[in-house]
Give the backbone structure.
Amino acid sequence: MTSSLPWDDISTPTRDYMVRKVASGGVVPVFWGRDTAGRCLLIVELEGDHAEKFRGLAVELIGVGVDLRNGEQPDRQRLVLTLDRNVDRDLFHGLCETLINALDGVTGPEHTLPVAITHIRRWKAFLASRKARRLSDEEVRGLWAELQYMRALYAARLTQSETVVSWTGADMVQQDFIFGNTAVEVKSLFGRDRNTVRISSEDQLATVVDELFLVTYRLAVADAGSGGISLNALVSAIEDEISDADALELYSQKLADFGYAPVAAYDAPDFIVMQRQTYRVEGEFPRLIRADLPEGITRVAYQIELEALRIFETDNDEVLRGG
C-alpha cells in the first residue's frame, strides 16, 4: 500500500472543496481535492464551455463519479472525478497519475476534455473488475510478451477480433492463445532466466488441440532512443489499432481480469525484443504432463533448459502465417 497519498494532508472542508494544485509541467491546471464528505477528488480546470461536448463524451464508472461543474469564473468549468470509497485510494491515485501525465502533453484547451474522457474510458473495465492490482516485475514482462504476440498474430494470421477472443488472458486455461486446432504458450525470458523457461503446471504443455507451440521472447530494457516500449504504451498502441468496438471492450476486460490497471507504475521500463523463438511441442519434447506423473503428485512447476529444445525449434511463420 502507498505510504503517502496527495489527499492525506488535505483537510475536509465545511463547504465546496479543499484543493491543492498538482505539480506538473503541463498547461492544464489540475488539483487534488476533498469534498465535504471527505471523499478524494481530482479536478481538471477547463477553459470555455464544454457542456455539450461532455454530454456526448461522458461515461459512467463504477466507484468513480465523473461530473462537469461550473468554475469560479464565467469562462471556466471543472471536470471533477470523485472516488466513492476511500479504501480504493491507491488504485485511484495510480489512475489519476496516468491522466495527469497525459494532460501534460495537451497544448490547447480544446483538447483537454477529449484527452481526459479517453483515459477515463480506459479505466472503466479496470474499475469494474475489482481485480486490478500491482503486477510483479515478472508478471509485467509476461503480459508484455503476450501482448506483443497478440499484435503479431492479428498482423499476420487472424482478424483483430479473432485474436482477442483467442487470448485466454487470465481465464485459467493452460495456454495463452487457442484458435482453431492450434494452441500457443508464450514465455518471456529476462536476466538470469535467459537459459531456461519456467513451466508453471503439469497442464501447460499439454493440450487437446492438434498443434501446440511454445513461443519465447527474450527481453531487455531498452536504452533511450532505441525503440523500446513500456507496458502502458503497448496496451495503448493495441487499443489504437483495434477498430472493432466489441473486440476493444473484450480486450479491456481481459486486461482487467489479468490484474492490469493503467497506472503510472507501468510507464517504465521500456522493453525491446532481442529474440523470438518458436518451438513445436510434440514427441519427445521435454515436459511433464498429468498422465505421466506418479500417483499423488500434482501442481508441478519446473524449468526447461533452452538448449534441450533446439531440435524442436521451428520458423515463427509456421504459427503466425499458418505454415
The radius of gyration is 23 Å. Helices lie at 51-57, 89-103, 109-129, 137-156, 160-166, 231-241, 245-258, 317-320. Residues 55 and 282 are 56 Å apart (CA to CA).
